[in-house]
Amino acid sequence: MKIIPFNIPLLLKTEIHNLSKVIDDVKFSGDGKFTKKCNSWLENNTKSKKVLLTTSCTHALEMSAILINIEPGDEVIMPSFTFVSTANAFILRGAKVVFVDIRPDTMNIDETKIEKAISKKTKAIIPVHYAGVACEMDIIMDIASKYNLYVIEDAAQGLMSSYKGRALGSIGHLGCFSFHETKNFHCGEAGAITINHEKFLDRAEIVREKGTNRSLFLKGVVDKYRWVDIGSSYLPSELNAAFLLAQITQAERVNKKRLLLWQEYYKNLKNSPYFETQESPRDDIKHNGHIFYIKLRDIKQRQKMIDYLNKNQIQAVFHYIPLHESNKCKKYNDFNGLDQFTSKESERLLRLPMYYDLSIEDVKYICKTIKGFFND
C-alpha cells in the first residue's frame, strides 16, 4: 500500500522553463523581470494598489511592523492560534501582543472580542485568515476606523480566497502572503506584502531595499541611491520569482482541483456523530481549499487517530500550539478575556492530507479509514 503523505509541494513541471530563462539572462538578484511579473500578477489578482514580493511572509509581516512605525510600548491585537511569525514581527519592534479568543466555527479571531482588548496603547489589529477562510473583515475594519487603528491581514494561507468579493490581503491597510512550500503556491520560501493605503506606497520599496532609495535609482529618478530609512534585505532572488510565476499563472487550475478535493472530504465526512468537520463557508466567503480538518473529542482521541492513520499509511498532523501557552514568551504577550475556545479547539483539530497531486480515490480511502477508526 502506498503512503499518503500529509503534503507534497506543488510542482507543475513548467517551473524549469522559467528557471532556464533566468540562467540564460544571467540575472539572479531580485527585482528583475520575473519579480516584476509576479508583483503585477498579484496586483491584478488582489486589486491591491501595490504588491511587492518578499523573501517570506515572516518578512512581509516585519515590513508591516516597520511601515506602521511600531515602537516599544505599542500594543497589537491578534489571535493566539497562529504561527509564531505573526507575533514575532511586532515583538521585534518592541510591541506587546494582546491575544483574544477565536471562533470555534472558523478558528479565526472572534471579532466580537476585539473592542474590549483595545487600550490607549493599541496600534493595530492583525486578523489571521486561517485555512484561507476570511475573518469578518467588515466588522474589523469598522472597529479599526472607530479607534484609528491599522489593520494588517495575515493572509499567509489566503491567496485565491475572498471576502464579499474582495481578495484577502486587499482589505486591510496592509496584507501578507506566504509562498512557503506548504502553501497552495510556492517557490520553496517567499512571500509578498500588499499595500492598500497610499501613505505606504513609496516607503514600502525603501524598507524592502535595506532602507535605501535604490528603486528610485533604478527608475532614473535619482543619480545615486542612498540610505534614507530603516529596512532590511527583504527582496527574493529571480530564481524564486521565476519558479513562483510558473505556478501563480496556473492559479485557477490549481484552485479548482484543491476545491474538488475539499468538497470530496466534506461530502464524505460531514454529519458524523463522532467528530466535527471543517465547516463550509457561507456564500459570500470563498476559500481556496488550503486545509481540510476534523475535530476529535479531545487531544487524547486525536493522538489515537493520528496513530491509527499512520498504521494505515496516512500522514495527518495537528496545527498550532497557541502562542500564549509559551511560558518563555509570557513577558511579550497577554491574553485578554477568557480562553474559551483557543486552547480547547486547537487540541481537537487534526489536518488531513491536502495537496494538488492528491487524488479523489486517495480522499475516499482516507475518509473510509477515519470511519474505520470508530468502527474498530
Describe the secondary-structure layout.
Layout: H1 15-25, H2 33-46, E1 50-54, H3 57-67, E2 75-79, H4 84-91, E3 96-100, H5 114-117, E4 122-125, H6 137-147, E5 150-154, E6 162-163, E7 166-167, E8 174-178, E9 191-195, H7 201-208, H8 214-218, H9 238-248, H10 251-269, E10 276-277, E11 285-286, E12 293-295, H11 299-311, E13 333-335, H12 342-348, E14 349-351, H13 360-375
Parallel strand pairs: 2-3, 2-4, 3-13, 4-5, 5-8
Antiparallel strand pairs: 1-9, 6-7, 6-11, 8-9, 10-12, 12-14
Helix pairs in contact: 1-9, 2-9, 3-4, 10-13
Describe this structure as you would to a colleague:
This protein has 2 domains: 15-248, Type I PLP-dependent aspartate aminotransferase-like (Major domain) (Aspartate Aminotransferase, domain 2, 3-Layer(aba) Sandwich); 251-375, Aspartate Aminotransferase, domain 1 (Alpha-Beta Complex), CATH 3.90.1150. Helix 2 (33-46) runs parallel beside helix 9. It has an 8-stranded mixed β-sheet, with helices on both faces. Helix content is 37%, strand content 14%. The two termini are 20 Å apart. It contains 13 helices and 14 strands.
Radius of gyration: 21 Å
Specify the helix fraction band.
Answer: 25-40%
Report the span from N to C terminus: 20 Å
What kind of sheet is the major sheet? 8 strands, mixed
Roughly what fraction of the amino acids lie in strands? 5-15%
Whole-number tally of structural domains: 2
Strand order of the largest sheet: 1-9-8-5-4-2-3-13
- Provide the CATH top-level class of the largest domain: Alpha Beta
Low-confidence runs: none
